[in-house]
Amino acid sequence: MASSDKKPLPTPASTGGDGGPPGKPTTMSTMMLDKGAAALQSLRPVKQINQHVCTFALYAHDPHRQLTSPRSYLHRIIGVEYIVSRKIFEALPKEEQRLWHSHAHEIRAGLWASPRVPEMLEKTELDHMAGTFGKFWCTWQVDRGDRLPLGAPALMVSPQAERIATVLPDLVRKRDQKYGFSTEELKAARADVDVPADPRPGQADYWVRHHKGFALDVVPHEMKRHAPFP
After folding, report:
1. Residue range 35-40: average pLDDT?
2. Mean pLDDT, range 155-177, rounded to an integer
3. Contact (CB, 8 A) for 170 and 144
4. Cα(181)–Cα(189) distance, rounded to whole angstroms?
5. Residue 179 CB coordination number (10 Å)
6. What average pLDDT does this structure show over 206-227?
7. Residue 7: which residues within 8 A CB-CB, separation 6 or more?
8. Residue 88, pLDDT above cutoff 60
């Protein structure tokens, strides 16, 4: 199985087409089922999504590879980020802390943005988020052209002030054009965002502090047998 540090061998699922997932268009019967499910099921977890945030993410093992996150990758879910408070982060084991990144810099630098939400309404939320930490696993590496989630997940990290961790200017420019705002203006407006005195406690942002990233491999492993197999 491909490592998150390697590009999968060319297959119909990794190259070609229009860049979208392989397969046939949604059938009429499936669309009718979807409408029935929407009418009969609460879909409560999905309806709890109440904010659209756009920022950037770097691959922990190769920070030159970067994504705008989230993005409308033809309605694909490309990964998930878990966010915790500083109190919870500091209670994690040090080995676990290495997998988490801080948010203070990307918020102060205007990289973290809520499209079409006025900055004055964001202020309280930004003050709060600047002290949080995230763990982001990318399961679908769309930047290399994968049309399906291939290989092992990749750990992603947040932009930082160090040169190795800066966002590619072209990505910032495209994001600004897409949503009609200026990252530089957001940065200037956030000079008073309340950032912790020590934004990197414990082992946070381990990759940029030690120049050591993390890449996963999927390898065969002896299965634990709790009962005899037939």
Report:
1. 76
2. 95
3. no
4. 12
5. 13
6. 88
7. 14, 144
8. yes
CA distance linking residue 174 with residue 178, whole number of Å? 6
- The pTM of the full predicted model, rounded to 2 decimals, is 0.83
Predicted confidence (pLDDT) per residue in 4-20, tens digit: 666 666 666 666 666 67
Q: What are phi and psi of 38, to 5 degrees?
A: -65, -30
15-31 b/e with 16+ CB inside 10 Å = b?
eeeeeebeeeeeeeeee
Tokens of 110: 């205007």
Cα 204 to Cα 102: distance, rounded to the nearest angstrom = 6
- Is the CB of residue 134 less than 8 Å from the CB of residue 71? no
Q: Do 1 and 217 form a contact (C-beta atoms < 8 A)?
A: yes
With 0-12 CB in 10 A as exposed, 13-18 as middle and 19+ as buried, what is 200?
A: middle
In this structure, what token pair is assigned to residue 206? 């381990």
